[in-house]
Amino acid sequence: MPEYKITVNDKSYSVNIGRIEDDSVEVTLDDRTYTVGIEFPGSKSKKTPKITRGRAVPDASASPDKTTAPGMTSGMGKILAPLPGAILKVLVAVGDQVTQGQTVAVMEAMKMENEIEAPVSGKVSAIAVKEGDTILENALIMSIG
């Protein structure tokens, strides 16, 4: 810190000037440190307030698991696309009986083939895609009722 000698009302002081940040400065006077507001000639006041926050680190155990397996949703029997891609094969038809974990469709996403599995056992009630369709992530592929 640079040290300066100042005189106020005929009394001399030794002052150390510390870090200057925006419109404040750390000043040490007689072994006591103060944060002092300063104004620069011709400067405009800041319109955006400075916000200082401590870093908050969430506790991972407090939040529920929000992941679902690819091709599945939390809705019973609805099969959604895990990624955007193209439907290569539909392996079942409406009315077919399927078992949980059975591959019901194959799609290409990011130059890889992905097998889409039935999340539940049941009868295929609707198929929303056909081979060759390009779909977005979370698009409905089929429903099992």
In words, what does this structure look like?
- The protein is mostly beta strands and 145 residues long.
- It has two domains: 3-37, no CATH class; 78-144, OB fold (Dihydrolipoamide Acetyltransferase, E2P) (Beta Barrel), CATH 2.40.50.100.
- Helices cover 0% and strands 46% of the residues.
- The chain contains no helices and twelve strands.
- Strands 1-2-3-4 form a four-stranded antiparallel sheet, with no helix packed on it. A four-stranded antiparallel sheet has the order 5-12-10-7, with no helix packed on it. It has a four-stranded antiparallel sheet with strand order 9-8-6-11, with no helix packed on it.
- Strand 2 and strand 3 (24-29) form a beta hairpin.
In short:
The protein is mostly beta strands. The chain is 0% helix and 46% strand.
Assess the beta-strand content as a share of residues: over 45%
Question: Which stretches are poorly predicted, pLDDT < 50 over at least 5 residues?
Answer: 63-68
CATH topology of the largest domain: OB fold (Dihydrolipoamide Acetyltransferase, E2P)
The CATH class label of the largest domain is Mainly Beta
In terms of structural class, how would the helical and strand content be classed?
Answer: mainly beta
